[in-house]
Design goal:
eight-stranded mixed sheet; alpha/beta; Alpha-Beta Plaits; elongated; about 30% strand
């Protein structure tokens, strides 16, 4: 049994290298599905550490396999690699060198933690039970295409050796530095975008009786959509329907042919997810029809709700408390409304997802997806300690 003091010592030695890699990745952010440099960097370091590498999962995805000397289960650990299309406004010396691209969600830290885990665990093969598969994933941010996780699964990342359990982690601004939190059941929301095209009949603004106004019909659709949660969903359940885009018209005195509505739905269980989808389609088409227009709904089921497995959750909680102490474990009170495509892994094998805190006392951290986003790099060492302890315990079945 590898003790926590050994893990702490090895992570402490590796931390400067982990931070160096985080900053390297941060300087060179890459768009979802185009993480070629990041993937190559990860592969280079894994091979230098003597880790078996598999490539070709959804183009830039790869996996590192660390096989222990003793029998046990295969544990998958997920690390996402992609950045966001936004201009960085921090003043760090390691800020993005790519115009219009930035690591504003901590994926540079996640990837660096994956390398740190590889460095620590590769030196523990003789004492390791089972196998640890390090999954470096592209396109977590690309909800429009469904996210990279499902395509890595399609391409066989959970096979050969077959993954028995998985763990994912995300840097989290609402937890204190040194604290890691999770909960049983729903952890993050399903995230489903929709586009509604309202088709009317164009005409002169002074003669609306000879036209069919898609802007008027669309306005009624937007209002009616807000009744779905309040009048169709149990008030003890949680769901969000938000319209973020309403576009129509090109001139003040012209009734246009079409108008477009775009929005997102967030849900925390599959039954409600499907119910809201059906209601969005029904409400939009019938409301538009009542006003003489036609609504065409493109509703996409993308990231499903992320549900933590009860058994894996209990084991992970125990491991976190073991390596960090009870005072640094946080039982999360409620799920987050953000989407996370680790949910595909959680649907495929028993899994748990945890949040890694980096908030300092008295500080209000900048939230992710902000051009000023950053995190305390000391959190990376905490995350690696937790990943390593959990991987060792889960593989051995502790």
């Amino acid at each position: 049994m590898i003790d926590n003091a050994t893990i702490d010592s090895r992570v402490r030695d590796a931390l400067p290298w982990i931070i160096e890699n985080r900053r390297d990745i941060h300087r060179h952010p890459e768009k979802s599905g185009q993480e070629t440099r990041t993937s190559a960097l990860v592969e280079k370091h894994l091979r230098e550490l003597g880790v078996e590498v598999r490539t070709g999962y959804y183009n830039t995805g790869l996996a590192g396999i660390i096989r222990g000397a003793h029998p046990g289960r295969t544990v998958g650990l997920r690390f996402d690699m992609d950045a966001l299309e936004m201009q960085e406004l921090t003043t760090h010396e390691f800020k993005s060198t790519v115009p219009g691209m930035m690591h504003a969600c901590g994926h540079d830290g996640h990837t660096a933690m994956g390398l740190g885990v590889a460095r620590v665990l590769s030196g523990m093969r003789d004492e390791l039970h089972g196998t640890v598969k390090l999954v470096f994933q592209p396109a977590e941010e690309d909800a429009q295409s469904g996210g990279g996780a499902q395509y890595m699964i399609r391409d066989g990342v959970l096979k050969d050796p077959d993954v028995d359990l998985m763990l994912g982690m995300h840097l989290w601004p609402d937890l204190d530095l040194g604290t890691v939190g999770t909960k049983p059941g729903s952890m993050m929301a399903g995230s489903d975008p929709f586009i509604i095209t309202i088709k009317g009949k164009g005409g002169h603004a002074s003669m609306p009786h000879s036209a069919i106004d898609p802007i008027l019909a669309g306005s009624h659709v937007v209002t009616a959509l807000q009744s779905i949660v309040s009048r169709n969903i149990d008030p003890f359940e949680q769901a969000v329907v938000t319209v973020g885009v309403f576009q129509g018209g090109t001139r003040y005195n012209v009734i246009p042919e079409t108008a477009t509505i775009q929005g997102t739905v967030r849900t925390f269980n599959e039954e409600i997810r499907l119910k809201i989808r059906d209601r969005v389609i029904d409400v939009a088409t019938k409301t538009a029809a009542a006003l003489g227009a036609e609504a065409v709904v493109d509703y996409r089921l993308t990231y499903p709700p992320l549900i933590n497995d009860a058994g894996v959750y209990e084991a992970v909680k125990k491991s976190i408390q073991s390596v960090l102490g009870d005072e640094h474990y946080a039982e999360v009170a409620r799920p987050a409304p953000g989407g996370e495509d680790f949910a595909y892994f959680a649907n495929a094998v028993p899994s748990t997802y945890v949040w890694l805190g980096y908030r300092k006392p008295g500080e209000t951290p900048v939230q992710p997806h902000n051009p000023h986003y950053d995190f305390d790099e000391q959190a990376l060492g905490v995350g690696v300690r937790v990943f390593v302890r959990c991987a060792l315990d889960l593989a051995q079945g502790v």
